[in-house]
């Protein structure tokens, strides 16, 4: 009788262990399957939210003069995203403060601010490269359409990871430019980063 009970317990333990392993395998397969599925169908949040720019562009008066501190793309090259992320985030924060807490414009702008904050934190320290390109920074005030063209180009460049760790600044500009941002081209008077401004 005792031997039969021992055999039964041994069989029960084996069955229990086998069922545990089956569960582990099932969960593992589910995890792998869901992981592959999510990686295939995951949509970049930049692509999801970039449509909000057209809404902001329509909602904000066209004659707004929005302050911008930036490096032209032709001068920043593959480092353009790194050079502009801090001041673009700062510019959007200033713009958000112009709207009330319940404003849809403010909520949409905050979404982009959070995206830029995450991007900037993942880039590490930006002070050295910003210092190297100090003489290439421009200060302007753009109308709404020009401003959001710039924001859109920046987000698309960040999404496609158009950046590099090896950044070599060109010679400091010696000529003046006409202010403006049109179809991916940047034109502005020569300016620099002031020593008393907040640094990243």
Automatic annotation (TrEMBL):
Subcellular localization: Cell membrane; Cell projection, Filopodium; Cell projection, Lamellipodium; Cytoplasm, Cytoskeleton
InterPro entries, per database record: 4_helix_cytokine-like_core, SCF
Keyword vocabulary terms for this entry: Cell adhesion, Cell membrane, Cell projection, Cytoplasm, Cytoskeleton, Disulfide bond, Glycoprotein, Growth factor, Membrane, Secreted, Signal, Transmembrane, Transmembrane helix
A molecular function GO annotation: stem cell factor receptor binding
Gene Ontology CC entries for this record: cytoskeleton; extracellular region; filopodium; lamellipodium; plasma membrane
GO biological process, one term: cell adhesion
Name the record gives this protein: Kit ligand
PANTHER family: KIT LIGAND (PTHR11574)
UniProt KW Cell inner membrane keyword: no
Membrane-topology annotation of the record: Single-pass type I membrane protein
Family label: Belongs to the SCF family.
Domain of life: Eukaryota
Transmembrane segments: 20-37
